[in-house]
Specification:
Distance between the termini: 24 Å
Strand order of the largest sheet: 3-5-7-8
Number of strands: 12
Order of helices and strands: EHEHEEHEHEEEEEHHHEE
Largest sheet: 4 strands, parallel
Radius of gyration: 18 Å
Length: about 290
């Protein structure tokens, strides 16, 4: 995936582009506080993140087995998958910092992040409790900058409205929450969260073939795989938008982010397996 930060020289220990982060060529590691994203390629975290990224934006029509939802996009990698609010705040904080810098510099610095993908979370947690409420504040802060946040719900058979989930139980206007459907348009029977008030829509997340480290591909299943289908769609909507919309987005990013969310949720295909257990009662329709 292409670097998002062309002004940074890798490995020289200098903040070349003066964005406040050293050697963040492809993104930021919020755990270690550096620009090193990939650990051992065989680690589950590396495999999981690469698989998710491929669903968002693997280039197609190149005889390499898989195609992402939005072929021509830039992906900012962030190591921040955690149940610890301190780490999550640093991860989302990096996104906020880069988007603010992009706005303030009129596109000369930072990055025009339009959507984040969070294929991680804490099962049966209350977004209003303890420091989890900060997660919702962060989604609101990103939303004000025009960033939608697409998040995975639980991989357990739980009603999020009743039992909670972080982040899919959070209520930010700028949040899109996703559950897992299969090739028969059934909600994944072996475990996928639902909620008539909390979970917006379903997307394909069962036996999804995507990229993994080492120039390989693999099938994985989970709400983690469903979520990037929606994330890639948000990016695709931006890439297809008119010049007029792009100009207006610069001046009213929060309003136009909510508009894209509305378009996406209104265009789902009704699916009987999601009736009465999701907000839209439907599955993502990219077309």
């Amino acid at each position: 995936f292409p670097s998002h930060d062309t002004g940074e020289i890798p490995g020289n220990g200098i903040d070349d582009d003066e964005n406040g982060f050293v050697d963040d060529v492809n993104g930021w590691n919020a755990v270690e506080g550096n620009g090193t994203l990939m650990g051992n390629p065989t680690d589950m975290d590396s495999l999981h993140g690469t698989h998710v990224a491929g669903i968002v934006g693997a280039q197609g029509n190149n005889k390499l087995q898989v195609s992402g939802v939005n072929w021509n996009t830039k992906i900012m990698g962030i190591v921040g998958s955690s149940g610890e609010t301190s780490i999550v705040a640093k991860a989302y904080g990096y996104v906020i910092a880069q988007k603010k810098l992009w706005i303030e510099s009129k596109g000369k610095k930072g990055a025009n992040v339009v959507v984040t993908n969070s294929s991680f979370g804490v099962d049966k947690a209350d977004c209003n409790s303890a420091d989890f409420s900060l997660w919702n504040d962060l989604y609101n802060e990103m939303g004000k900058l025009g960033i939608l946040s697409v998040v995975a719900t639980s991989n357990a058979e739980v009603d999020v409205d009743v039992e909670g989930d972080v982040p899919s139980g959070c209520k930010s206007t700028y949040l899109i929450t996703v559950t897992n459907t299969d090739s028969e348009d059934e909600k994944y029977k072996d475990g996928a969260g639902y909620g008539a008030k909390s979970i917006h829509l379903g997307a394909p997340g069962t036996d999804i073939l995507s990229t993994i480290p080492g120039n390989k591909t693999k099938k994985l299943t989970g709400t983690s795989m469903a979520t990037p289908h929606v994330t890639g769609t948000v990016a695709l909507l931006h890439s297809l938008a008119s010049k007029k919309f792009a100009e207006r987005y610069r001046s009213q990013p929060a309003e136009d982010a909510k508009l894209l969310k509305e378009i996406l949720l209104r265009s789902v295909d009704p699916v009987s397996s999601l009736k009465s257990i999701t907000v839209t009662e439907g599955r993502l329709n990219v077309f």
